[in-house]
């Protein structure tokens, strides 16, 4: 059997397909781990990670087992090593260069958000079609003309795009982004976008999230509150 046929070769963590729920929780674990690293903490238990993420410790152990990290009973996980494994699994060891299209209130707020850089995302461009905004400076970025989208994406080597646009123009701009070779898109536009199967599109609809929150809020049972309400 040749080396290429050897079945014992482990699959790289970053190449494994992780369950969506696990991916979401890994981002929470990583945030806590990075905080512990900053404090000089060397080890952490699954119980501590579970508490920070609001899940059970069994979930933590199962999630981390996908990465080949099992911890040591009574000792826990090595913070630096686990942080590195999670970052690799999430693809954060790559260079992610983000362009934001739309310099309205949301786009400007996103451009100013310092948390992107600390999590491995470099915002390299901010674009808008409004000529009153083009050329102005938002934070450390100068707003580029959306008419030059393809040129800006190529020049900045952007490999992710955030769409902070009204529904009326979101699809046409999204099409241009895809045609320009950027296949990872986060959309805040209040509309369903159509993209090819090879494009990774994530949609953030804040109105929908608030509606879901309202649904759960009306069903929320506050301890002691019902007992204080007078009977009808």
Automatic annotation (TrEMBL):
One cellular-component annotation, GO: cytoplasm
GO molecular function, one term: DNA-binding transcription factor activity
DNA-binding region: 28-67
Protein biosynthesis recorded as keyword: no
UniProt entry tagged with the keyword DNA-binding: yes
Domain (CoA-binding) ranges: 92-192
GO terms of biological process kind: negative regulation of DNA-templated transcription; response to redox state
Subunit structure: Homodimer.
Its job: Modulates transcription in response to changes in cellular NADH/NAD(+) redox state.
The protein's name: Redox-sensing transcriptional repressor Rex
Gene symbol of the encoding locus: rex
């Amino acid at each position: 059997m040749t080396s290429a046929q050897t079945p014992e070769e482990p699959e790289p963590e970053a190449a494994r397909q992780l369950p969506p729920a696990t991916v979401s929780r890994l981002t929470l674990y990583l945030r806590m781990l990075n905080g512990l690293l900053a404090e000089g903490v060397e080890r952490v238990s699954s119980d501590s990670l579970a508490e920070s993420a609001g899940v059970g410790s069994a979930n933590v152990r199962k999630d981390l087992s996908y990465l080949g990290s099992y911890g040591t009973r009574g000792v826990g996980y090595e913070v630096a090593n686990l942080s590195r494994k999670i970052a690799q699994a999430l693809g954060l060891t790559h260079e992610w260069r983000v362009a934001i299209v739309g310099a309205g209130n949301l786009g400007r707020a996103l451009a100013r958000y310092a948390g992107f850089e600390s999590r491995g995302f470099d915002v390299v461009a901010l674009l808008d079609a409004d000529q009153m905004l083009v050329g102005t400076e938002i934070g450390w970025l100068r707003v580029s003309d959306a008419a030059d989208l393809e040129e800006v994406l190529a020049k900045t080597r952007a490999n992710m795009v955030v769409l902070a646009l009204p529904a009326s123009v979101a699809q046409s701009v999204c099409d241009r982004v895809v045609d320009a070779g950027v296949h990872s898109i986060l959309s805040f536009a209040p509309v369903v976008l159509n993209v090819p199967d090879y494009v990774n599109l994530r949609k953030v609809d804040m109105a929908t999230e608030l509606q879901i929150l309202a649904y759960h809020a009306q069903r929320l049972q506050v301890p002691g509150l019902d007992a204080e309400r007078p009977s009808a």
